[in-house]
Amino acid sequence: MAGRLDGKVALVTGGGRGIGAAIAKQFGAEGATVILSYGGSKNAAEAVAEDIRGMGQSAEAVHCDAATAGATDKLVRDTAERHGQLDILVNNAGVYPMTTIAKCSDDEWERTMAINLRAPFEGFRAGYNVMAPGGSIITIGSIAAEGVLAPGIAVYSASKSGVQLLSRGAARELGRKQIRSNVIQPGPIDTDMNPADGDKADFQKMMVPLGRYGKVEEIAELATFLASDDSSYINGAVINADGGMTS
């Protein structure tokens, strides 16, 4: 049975862990050739690539320090050149600084904006130049873009609000080339960064009408839909996958 992404080449940044790893595996299961980048978790990323190869699909893990200017631009261009095409780009690499405005250092601010905002910008810019009509760019944002939901996340919220608007702008500009741009904004998702049994889990579950954390597989399924031709008229959408937390 043909997969929804048969014949497509997909790049998932930050694909070695959590949501990124789940998306990479789902893309592979749907027939895509998958390139996943990692920053510091080489072994985890290689394990994800090996899982995809075990499905009979081509996959590789590539190092990319998203905090370095120009690194994501080079990653996107190199991927398209090596594989002859790039059909899907997932801007997933990100950091989550827990700091107040008063205590945030210049270095922490710069690193957060570099990874959460500048790297996706480089992805959009390079994607415009190397992706063919029919391409799809999916950005993993956060419901923190909708407001500062608690003390200590203002810096993170600022970066995610910025990337949401950047993605919506890309939908207008890249859409003229028939390249779609959409945003997934997860709420509490069970990952090693925010485990469903963590110290703050009960408080977060209380804020979710469904009363539970989301699963990485649920985000991956949504990303697959947005990457596929099934969503060919969806462009510029911001989808909150949060169990109703922002309802």
Give the structure's gist in a few sentences.
This protein has 247 residues and is α/β, with parallel strands linked by helices. The protein has helices spanning 18-29, 42-54, 71-83, 106-130, 154-175, 201-206, 216-227, and strands spanning 9-12, 33-38, 59-63, 88-91, 136-140, 180-186, 238-241.
Verbal overview:
By secondary structure, the chain is of the alpha/beta class. It has a single domain, classed as NAD(P)-binding Rossmann-like Domain (Rossmann fold, 3-Layer(aba) Sandwich). Helices cover 42% and strands 14% of the residues. It has seven helices and seven strands; from the N terminus they run βαβαβαβαβαβααβ. The chain has helices at 18-29, 42-54, 71-83, 106-130, 154-175, 201-206, 216-227; strands spanning 9-12, 33-38, 59-63, 88-91, 136-140, 180-186, 238-241. The chain has a seven-stranded parallel beta sheet, with helices on both faces. Strand 5, helix 5 and strand 6 (180-186) form a beta-alpha-beta unit. Helix 1 packs parallel to helix 2 (42-54) and helix 1 (18-29) crosses helix 7 (216-227). The radius of gyration is 17 Å and the shape is globular. The termini are far apart. The model has no long low-confidence stretch (mean pLDDT 96).
| Overall residue-averaged pLDDT value | 96
Question: How many domains is the backbone divided into?
Answer: 1
**Can you write the helix and strand succession as a string?**
EHEHEHEHEHEHHE
Number of strands: 7
Radius of gyration: 17 Å
* Named CATH topology: Rossmann fold
Can you identify the CATH class? Answer: Alpha Beta
Strands ordered across the widest β-sheet: 3-2-1-4-5-6-7
Global geometry: globular
Give the CATH superfamily. Answer: NAD(P)-binding Rossmann-like Domain
Helix content bin:
40-55%
Biggest pleated sheet: 7 strands, parallel
